[in-house]
Amino acid sequence: MRFLKFFLLAVLATWQGYSQSEDEQQIKAIYNTALTNSESYDWLNYLSNQIGGRLSGSLQAQQAVEYAKSQLDSMGLDRVWLQPVMVPKWVRGTPEFAYVETAPGITTDLPICALGGSVATPLQGIKASIVEVNGIEELKLLGPGKISGKIVFFNKPMDPTELNTFKSYSGCVDQRYAGAKEAAKFGAVGVIVRSLNLRLDDYPHTGTMDYGDTEIPNRIPAAAISTKGAEFLSATLKLSPKANFYFKQNCKVYKDVESYNVIGEIRGSEYPDEVMVVGGHLDSWDLGDGSHDDGAGCVQSMDVLRLLKETGYQPKRTIRVVLFMNEENGLRGGKKYAETANSKNEKHVFALESDAGGFTPRGFSFDCSEANFEQVKRWKPLFEPYLVHLFVKGHSGADIGPLKDDGIVLAGLRPDSQRYFDHHHSENDTFEHVNKRELELGTAAMASLVYLFDKYGIVPTP
Amino acid sequence: MRFLKFFLLAVLATWQGYSQSEDEQQIKAIYNTALTNSESYDWLNYLSNQIGGRLSGSLQAQQAVEYAKSQLDSMGLDRVWLQPVMVPKWVRGTPEFAYVETAPGITTDLPICALGGSVATPLQGIKASIVEVNGIEELKLLGPGKISGKIVFFNKPMDPTELNTFKSYSGCVDQRYAGAKEAAKFGAVGVIVRSLNLRLDDYPHTGTMDYGDTEIPNRIPAAAISTKGAEFLSATLKLSPKANFYFKQNCKVYKDVESYNVIGEIRGSEYPDEVMVVGGHLDSWDLGDGSHDDGAGCVQSMDVLRLLKETGYQPKRTIRVVLFMNEENGLRGGKKYAETANSKNEKHVFALESDAGGFTPRGFSFDCSEANFEQVKRWKPLFEPYLVHLFVKGHSGADIGPLKDDGIVLAGLRPDSQRYFDHHHSENDTFEHVNKRELELGTAAMASLVYLFDKYGIVPTP
């Protein structure tokens, strides 16, 4: 008995030793290829500098669909296709304009941009006195008496002491998303929201907002103001509490239009019916060129399949790159993909999203069973030489969220988050802020994780 | 016996629990203060944008000495002083100029800069045919027959597959440092060196070079060429092997001048004779403003002392910030500091340098005894919440190197290294490339390590 146990342990050790070394070699090959022969940076250059911001329903979004498909077509995958999906079409219109007026004719212009989905102001703009609140909670404390007829200025800043800047973002994104809906209940005539940016600068940051069940005539326009603008406005209001604020925007919602998720796959050699997804979202906001959000995630995901082919790895399972449409203002692509997968009874075992910028990868977060998380943690040593240390449970990605069920492992790439909100949803999200090596290291980390899940599979749910 | 052991273990556990929690609290206070109330970014703004590049012996270096001293004077330290040190004075002169000539009159200009310490070309410049070599080894294989009368083009690139970019740098810095000396032995008339940059761009990167015992009349001028320039030149030589290269530079070495290390200290409350140093180097190259190399390390080091004071921590040991002069082209400040410490019989127990850029901190490297490294590894969990994972043995810092003896722990901050060589020693090392939060996180990591070494001391060498 004791001998048998010893023998089995020895066999196991040998097998694990061999396997470990094979894994180390494959991951080394992935990293070396990513750092010397990657396409991601060139693809991103094209998406960012030849196409630009790719808001759902725009010409640029359609150009991005065609470009991404043409690149996937050239990669020698087993299948490439477009999955039609109806998406919202919101258009910003001419540049927004705003000022604060401390006395008649004494004005200071301030940088704003309409929030995605907002209605326009009347043609002549809106001028009203303005009330600063520190988030939705404080708005509710003030009530209609102090809000009616006014513009509400949501000025809750992101918490700088949080190391994970996405947590800081979560802590105040409600004022952007639901601020107009809540302020309208108290009779406000407009909403100005501090940009979700930890840095003080002059860029207003847009992002999606929602009126919920607010009746159409009661919907009020909402805009973001740059962080420096917010600081200036707040200081001005302390000196001149009766200051007026003026803003003008002529954004508009059109009818939904047809767009596409762009999909390519390598068919699995042993378990072709087990599908693994790696993806990002192809749409972006319109102000910058969407390099970090989420051009980076798209080109990384495309390059994952290319790296596996370049390194000669033949996947056992079907590996699919999905470039989702309309993450930013509707998530229609993610929902459509999951609906279609369900209706076809496709078995999805793993999905990985990169949608947190093209920065140095620090690790991954996982939305999965304990047993699968335990398996992941055993792989940690394989990532240590590449300074990928962070393996935590948590949010994976918005687009792959609709795939969630008991039998799937969802994962999100976790790049260094310190610079992300300097760029996110603003004119400052541009190609020159993506470092080629950092982008490629993210791709390599993703490809390595996909390789491991393909090779070892997931732990089935009992 | 068994009871006693249990009792002792329980006491130990309680004590460690308490202490751990006190450490956690102090480190949390350091991080929160660094991220909400730091001076480092403003100091760096002044050093970079009001003073600029601070080459040893320059007016700007002197201005930096005065500015840093004035800031330390305002911090309420126990003592602030200037330590005189004689430094080399090398001056670049008017901008360098170079071209490759494939046929008489058919020329393409290429971006170069003189290497620090190089001699000038003759007034009219040098024109000669040019031989490409892949590093010093290949030069030696060619020998005088193929080198004499020519310009040598060292074109060994940094290895992109190395995750630690400083290792890639080490792998080819010899061609910059000693290329001219070696080529002169074979009768070369000049040297052009590929910039030590992993990115393809148009910035030539300078850096120190040395003629060793080459006789003065035999010293040949040496310049760096941008990576794109190097690629272009290499491609040109494949098509036109007889192409001529022309370059002109009028740099000059003057007599040594007096400068200073800038030093401030908080006197220890219990062991004032045990000195702990935290520092960076105040000089920089002249092409950029020296924000990453090493303005960042200077302002972080200054802020370490300020953070300890702000968080109410009273050091047991004497903590000294040292802003070293002349790291780049002589290391005179580091040598002077160590000589003075020796001559005064000062007992230095710990020294930490930040000289790898103001990027997100990944960890520290340690040059110390095994016992001290074991102690450091026990502190790792305290750094995990701040995503500081890397604790390795290795190089600490050039300036603190001369302090090395058996009884000291030397440490170096290890920021993320992917972007460092995009900036290093070039016109592209400027303030806008430093992210405020990344800089502050480095400061906080440094202050936390200084706190732990101050509180627990080092493990004495048996």
Automatic annotation (TrEMBL), chains A, B:
Protein name (record): Carboxypeptidase Q
Keywords associated with the record: Carboxypeptidase, Endoplasmic reticulum, Glycoprotein, Golgi apparatus, Hydrolase, Lysosome, Metal-binding, Metalloprotease, Protease, Secreted, Signal, Zinc, Zymogen
Keyword Signal: yes
Location(s) in or outside the cell: Endoplasmic reticulum; Golgi apparatus; Lysosome; Secreted
Peptidase M28 domain sequence ranges: 261-447
InterPro entries (alphabetical): CPQ, Peptidase_M28
Organism: Maribacter aquimaris
Subunit description: Homodimer. The monomeric form is inactive while the homodimer is active.
